[in-house]
Amino acid sequence: MKLVECNDRSDGCKWECRKQLNSKRHKVELSIRKGSWFERSNLTLEEILKLTYWWCRGVEQEMMRFEVDVSGNTVVDWDSFCREICEVYYLECEEKIGGPNKRVQIDESKFGKRKYHRGHRVEGQWVFGGIEEESRKSFMFAVDDRSEATLLPIIETFIEKGTTIISDCWKAYTNLEKHGYKHSLVNHSKEFVNKDGDHTNKIEGHWRQAKAKLPAFGTQVYVFVIFS
């Protein structure tokens, strides 16, 4: 199988295999998109690369439409498509973060807004996440509540045993050491950095970045799962 130029395809080239079996010549041709995540797209390769590049850079949809010169509907569809691809990868990925001699900060945050713009009650969706300090690899997961029964299975799914986990004093984290983790607590009612120099600044910064990319109004629960 080799890559050859052609004039009968919009991509300008194709995969081609010529071989002889039982004294008969066989010729097999495949699109260069075969097996890719954009195999069925009707966009040109140039449009696909440009849209994906600007999407990864977090550019607003109107600017993407202008830069790539496609319709607004195309940009909206591609945005949703890229999110779905990331969601599938994220849910199927078995790679864990952390491990011996590595440190992971964990926290929960509510994505939403104060009801009627007053008081401390926040309407929205709880999201649990963690970030590895050295590599900044991370995960986020929408959760129904912040109980130990809910958070511990997620921790065991995404964080290697032997990891030093850094968290606040939320009660759901009380038994982490019983499950094979080292645990460093930061009591935010007294300090932002504990006596060992540990803090949760990275995961809190991660929340700020995540919330900045979500719409201010009308965000549905499924958005948090996809965003993770």
In short:
This protein has 228 residues and is of the alpha/beta class.
Question: What labels would you give this structure?
Answer:
single chain; 228 residues; alpha/beta; Nucleotidyltransferase, domain 5; 3 domains; five-stranded mixed sheet; three-stranded antiparallel sheet; 6 helices; 31% helix; 25% strand; elongated
The top-level CATH class of the largest domain is Alpha Beta
Unreliable residue runs: none
End-to-end Cα distance: 38 Å
CATH architecture of the largest domain: 2-Layer Sandwich
State the shape. elongated
Summarize the structure in words:
With 228 residues, the chain is an alpha/beta fold. The chain has 3 domains: 2-31, no CATH class; 45-92; 103-213, 2-Layer Sandwich (Nucleotidyltransferase, domain 5). Helix content is 31%, strand content 25%. It is built from 6 helices and 8 strands. The radius of gyration is 24 Å and the shape is elongated.
Task: Furnish the topology, listing elements before pairings.
Layout: E1 2-5, E2 13-21, E3 24-31, H1 45-56, H2 61-68, H3 72-92, E4 103-114, E5 122-132, E6 138-143, H4 148-158, E7 164-167, E8 182-185, H5 201-212, H6 221-227
Parallel strand pairs: 4-7, 7-8
Antiparallel strand pairs: 1-2, 2-3, 4-5, 5-6
Helix pairs in contact: 1-2, 2-3
